[in-house]
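Q&A log
Question type: sequence-to-structure
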Amino acid sequence: MRMVSSNPLYVLILAGGSGERFWPLSRRVRPKQLLSLFSKETLLEATLRRLDGLVPPEQILILTNADQEAGVRALCPQLPRENIVAEPAKRDTAAAIALGVGWIARRAPQATMVVLPADHLIQDTAGFQRTLRTAAAAAEQTGELVTIGIQPTWACPGFGYIEQGAAFHLADAAAGGPGVFEVTRFREKPDAELAAQFLQQGNFRWNAGMFIWSIPAIMAAFNRYASALGEFVGRLHAGENMADLLRDVFPALPKISIDYAVMEKSERVLMVESAFDWDDVGSWTAVAKYLEHDATGNQSNTAVHAIDAANNIVFTDQPRTIALLGVSDLIVVQTADALLVCSRHEAEKIKQLVARVPEAMQ
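Response status: OK
Response body:
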């Protein structure tokens, strides 16, 4: 099934972040998407590579922030310079996406738009592109807002969930393609018990923050459900000076997620079930799944020599030999200027720790 779009397809990549969860490898100027955690390729570079053959570089836009703009530009020489913009203030995903919508509307007001985070691990490029083609076709055929649902692999309390409703049949959809469903409702991050119920029930999917819609559909949704954002989009679309709007208007926009601002309020949303693998890799313990491991559960990206040491995570940004003696359940991360040693059970508190190190190291 080709499902070739009759309208131009644009992609907005959200590439901000604070660079705290993966300290000391990550910093304020180098958050997760600018790191090479799984290969020599950064997560942002991998995100761009997955779009090869689907979207031309001139139709890929990246939204980052002032701290990270230089790093993003250095990794994306194939994109036109004007396709990378830095937010002047953190206003959450609704304002960021509104900026992208107005940005695209100036160029192609009938375009189909895809919103993607820059920092996810997806290895099946063919399945990823097949899913996006189906989602773009759904957005064009129906005029509805579309999201991607990820098949849960465990009862994760850290993700938002999508409750899957009735199947929706697209015209000309080939058998065996990604399924399209109506969304019954969005569910916020549950506690562990409720997440287990979601998994057992079988019709819940992870909300990965990937969205597809036509520019007219998302502009109408902003105007209906988030008027301040809709007005901002309209002024961008009308051709007002973008630099002036970013400086004078953007910092005062509502600080709210796209889920709260639009998705949860919309009368009908469609979900395409992902035909690809996916991992948010939100912590060092998540990264560890993809590292080499020894017989006692030590996971590392470098040579580790261990005696009476088990279940440790070791990561270094330079070739080094690490020796472990009589320790277990640690995270050890070494860079040229810093060393982290913490319990792997306290990984979620690394963000708190970063606030206590010298500002130049944050």
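Response note: Residues 284-361 form one domain.
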